[in-house]
Amino acid sequence: MIRTAIVGTGGIAGVCHVPAVRAQAHRAVLVAAVDVDAARAEAFAAEHGIPAVYTDLRTMLAEQRPDVVHLCTPPFLHADQAVACLESEAWVWCEKPVALSLAELDRIRAAEGPAVAGAVFQHRYGTGVRYLRERIAAGTLGRPLVAQCVTAWYRDDAYYGVPWRGTWENEGGGPTLGHGIHQMDLMLAVLGAWAEVRAMAGRLERAVQTEDVSAALVRFENGAIATVVNSVLSPREESYLRFDLTDATVELRHLYGYSNADWTFTTRSAGVTWDPPDDLPSSHTAQLAAFLDDYEAGIRPDLGRSTMELVTALYKAAITGLPVRRGEIDPADPFYGSLHGGRPEVFR
Questions:
Q1: CB neighbour burial string for 144-169, b if at least 16 within 10 angstroms, e if fewer
Q2: For residue 147, which phi and psi values (nearest 5 degrees)?
Q3: How does pLDDT run across 101-114, given as a tens digit for each residue?
Q4: 260 contact partners, CB below 8 Å, separation of at least 6
Q5: Fewer CB atoms near the end CB (10 Å): N or C, the chain?
Q6: Confidence grade of residue 268 (pLDDT, cut at 50, 70, 90)
Q7: H or E stretch including 285?
């Protein structure tokens, strides 16, 4: 059995990660829960039947020797915790954002050895995206031309009452990093490598250090052009993706997860159809199955560097007012070490 542990026992751990592990009960078992809040950890373990409880990650790693660790902690903790797990030879499945900067992400990758790390990007694993990627690869929908990627969510002032939210030091960025990253990752999964980004961002309403809205234009290596909007100021919440190809338009409207019913297909020709072979919703459960397949086969999962590079480029483009090309943000670039590029006051 694959011995798994959950670090951070907040909402997403119980709602998403525990059911994902339970669905893999034929090959995975939860052996420990870790949280700095002992009472919360004890309650979480009691609710979910987890035998061991810890308030210290390294103690848990030494005593339990888990095979896989689920990191469900606040973003500013991820890099140090991921490195500690990797050094103990435990694989890491980390919630987004995996890191607060490309520097932190590369530090995690550099710590890999017998164990490796992967990012939670569960929207890649629903039937709709898998089917769309197959159709594009086969050329049956034509060439991608135009795309729209919208994360229009709403987070009120009370949401930012949690001390680590809305700060560069602890959350790393605003909705571009912490909310829109899922839809942008999905866009990249469909359209492939991006080439250039131009952007604007601002703090319009929330009392935070970071932005609360951003907008960008992205050109892809295949020539397609996309618009991207990330907002936490939108009362009617929606996650929306639209892909216009030469022979079809494919749209996805959902909020935090989708099934086949959330896709719309429009074609120029009666001979072009949309007929997915099954209906696997996007979910942590779907991705964990693939992650454990990788674990058993010894295949390195994706840590989401291309997506993090796009996020970083969007911030750089918005703050500097200049276009940013893929590959230009190297260790000498101020935006490599932080998404504000050394200008944390930019949105104040």
A1: beebbbbbbbebeeeebeeeebbbbe
A2: -145, 155
A3: 999 999 999 999 99
A4: 127, 128, 276, 279
A5: C
A6: confident
A7: helix 284-297
Compute the CA torsion angle 300, 118, 242, 176 (nearest 10 deg).
-140
pLDDT at 237 over 90: yes
> What pairs with residue 219 in β-bridges?
196, 225
Question: Which token pair is 126?
Answer: 């629903």
User: What's the one-letter identity of residue 285?
Assistant: T
- Confidence label for 272 from pLDDT (cuts 50, 70 and 90): confident
Q: Are strands 28-34 and 194-202 parallel, antiparallel or unpaired?
A: unpaired
| Mean pLDDT, the chain, whole residue set | 97
68: which residues sit within 8 A by CB, 6+ positions away?
2, 3, 4, 5, 28, 90, 91, 92, 93, 291, 292, 295
Beta bridge pairs of residue 124: none
Tokens (6 digits) for 311: 């996020």
- Per DSSP, the residues of 44-98 read HHHHHT-SEEES-HHHHHHHH--SEEEE-S-GGGHHHHHHHHHHTT-EEEEPSSS
CA distance 149 to 323: 19
Q: Which helix (H) or strand (E) holds 147?
A: strand 144-154
In angstroms, the CA 40 to CA 78 distance is: 20
Return the ∠ at Cα 317 (arms to 73 and 244), rounded to 5°.
Answer: 85
Structure confidence by residue, pLDDT tens digits, 65-82: 999 999 999 999 999 999
Q: What is the pLDDT of residues 32-60, one digit of tens each?
A: 999 999 999 999 999 999 999 999 999 99
Q: What is the pLDDT of residue 207?
A: 94
What CA–CA distance (Å, rounded) separates 300 from 291? 9
Three-state DSSP at 110 gives helix
